[in-house]
Specification:
This protein has 324 residues and is α+β, with helices and mostly antiparallel strands. The chain has twelve helices and seven strands. The strands form two sheets. Strands 1-4-5-6-7 form a five-stranded mixed sheet, with helices on both faces. Strand 2 and strand 3 (105-109) form a beta hairpin. The chain starts with a helix and ends in a 6-residue tail after the last helix.
């Protein structure tokens, strides 16, 4: 479903996302990297990943346009096959479309680029607008780029598995960024084997979409065109546990946050707080336990709350009843 449209229909539109300035700057940098048939990009791939190959004097850049994501994914698979069967040449796939099975449903992915080496192996290229200063970039941003590229590597492996013989998908991707404070491209090879393994395990553990659908009430529908009360009831038929981390990753986070606050759920304060409170799942339960009105005194969480409440009362008494 389109969760952004769903959130807007529920009256809690998502407001996060990349700024227009950053979006334009990123597009301008990517266009520079891929200019002249990707000559600079291929030079970086050769320099950082495949110096034993012949320097790329030129490259094939196949057209990948087609109708719909399914058509583009099929066209990408064909282009990869043709490039792999023509050894000795470099091939650059600009914004290919890949399909990855996620819980039984295809998810369509669009890497910035995929390069086919003269030996027939494949490399994922990620182009980012954050800078590399003195050859190093922000570790958090590099980690996020590596996790993103690992998903593309998994999708490429599924394409490669359908070919005979199966080409090698390289686990070292090329991360291209602006050099220092300029707009000149520089690059670094990033090993994504760890991120690929973690993502693969996570995908294997996902509940199948069919199983989720079977657990829903009969006739439930998430169309944004439904009346607000019906749409709200449909969304709430799916259990959700809001945490502040959701705000940076989910379009429905603001809706779930409002519902979590209405219910007094302690998860709205963060997962670490929820973990410390054990079986106390609402703010009302926590306050009652702290006041000694509820809860098992042998419960470590309840004992800690009562100790904290006693210390607070003592501090307030010492301060003459003033606020801390």
């Amino acid at each position: 479903m389109d969760k952004a449209s769903l959130a807007s229909a529920l009256g809690s539109p998502a407001v996060f996302g990349q700024s227009q300035f950053a979006f334009m700057r990123g597009n301008a940098f990517e266009a520079r990297v891929k200019a002249d048939g990707g000559a600079e990009l291929l030079r970086l791939v050769h320099d950082k990943l495949d110096r034993s190959a012949e320097p790329p004097a030129g490259a094939q850049v196949p057209a990948l346009s087609a109708t719909g994501p399914e058509g583009r994914a099929a066209r990408t698979s064909l282009a990869l096959r043709e490039a792999t069967e023509a050894p000795g040449t470099w091939t650059l796939l600009d914004h290919p479309m890949l399909a990855l099975d996620v819980a039984g449903s295809p998810a369509f992915l669009e890497p910035d680029a995929v390069v086919v080496h003269p030996d027939g192996s494949w490399t994922v290229v990620e182009i980012k607008s954050f800078p590399m200063l003195d050859g190093s970039a922000d570790p958090a941003k590099v980690g996020a780029a590596a996790r993103q590229a690992a998903v593309y590597v998994l999708a490429l492996e599924q394409v490669a598995a359908r070919l005979s013989p199966s080409p090698r998908v390289r686990h070292r991707i090329l991360l291209v960024c602006p050099k220092d404070f300029s707009n000149l491209p520089t690059a670094s090879a990033v090993d994504v084997r760890k991120q690929r393994a973690v993502t693969d395990r996570q995908l294997a553990r996902l509940t199948r979409i069919e199983d989720i659908a079977d657990a829903l009430p009969e006739g439930v529908c998430f169309s944004p065109d439904l009346p607000a009360d019906e749409l709200t009831a449909a969304v709430e038929a799916v259990p959700a546990t809001y945490a502040p981390e959701c705000l940076s990753a989910c379009e429905l986070a603001f809706h779930c946050r409002a519902r979590s606050r209405e219910a007094g759920a302690v998860t709205s304060l963060g997962r670490p707080v929820r973990a410390e409170l054990g079986g106390l799942s609402t703010v009302e339960d926590v306050l009652a336990a702290a006041r000694g009105e509820a809860g098992d005194p042998a419960d470590p969480a309840v004992a800690a709350l009562r100790r904290a409440a006693a210390l607070r009362a003592e501090a307030l008494a010492t301060a003459g009843g003033g606020a801390l």
